[in-house]
# Entry
Amino acid sequence: MVIQKEDLTADDVLERVSDGFYALDDDWRFTYVNSRGEEILGTPRDELLEETIWDAFPELAGTKFERRFRDAKSSDESDEFHYYHEPLDRWFCVCVHPSEDGTSVYVRDITGTVEAQRQLERTKEQLVLVNRIMRHDIRNDMNVVLGWAEELRNHVDDEGDEILERILKTTKHTVNLTSTARDFVEAVTDEGTDDLETVPLDEVVAEEVERCRNVHGIDDVTVGDMPSVKVRANTLLSSVLSNIFDNAVEHCGEDVRIEVTAEADDEAVRLRIADNGPGIPPEKRDAVFGRSAEGLEHPAAGFGLHLVDTVVRGYGGDVWIEESEAGGAAFVIELPLAGGDAGD
# Structure
């Protein structure tokens, strides 16, 4: 038998909603409780009907729950609030809607959401602590090691010089990892992150290209015509570009060639950073960002590229990998334009 819409009563509808619902008359007596409301209140509805809410649940007297109910009724304005009910050890989202006939109440159990939020806050606090340790302890110690290792250059022979270069390379890599870890923590927490602001993309690209040339000692980094556009971003946009440049240098070696181009339409700009390295097979392109089921445990995943993906998606953009004209990898970063800015 097919039930027509006109055959459904108000009770039928209320029984089907996922929220708990109950109705109170002007004297705060229960006149209706749906099945979900019965579950949340933990009392059979037959025991609640004609009972006042304050008699049925005397522990509510003098609490925020009672105050918000009475305020809503006296002001004749709807209200919504979160409430922890200690006897049930549960958190609820309560929506109160007063009317001429009484008060309608929708209740949703949000204990799982609250606990997840609290766990997230604890995780953020732990990440902030790790960030501080990385930034102040490990990074500082590794810079000391790097400084003393540089002092050894004039005190080792050719064989020792080769070992020294390995020490310097590993130490610099560790220092760079602490910077990436710092940026990642800032990307997933509120510490050190600026509110998104309007950023000229061409200026950020120019700064990071210059940094790449100076830090890695390479000249073959070319920049094509750059549209004069602005995007919604923050200081972590520089980290996005530097990690892609560093990835190219790491996998291409001394003969690295990097080409930066961009194009824009009315809604977004696509920045393309292409290299002449070995490239990345299509089946591994999501994995390098940590997007596979294995996450960062995947052999192809990179912490720096995971940071790139996290930050770009946080900007409301996207990033993907194509094959470059030289057979290497081409990272394409798509970012929404700020305020409908368009390319020249």
Notes: DSSP finds ten helices and twelve strands in the chain. The two ends are 63 Å apart (CA to CA).
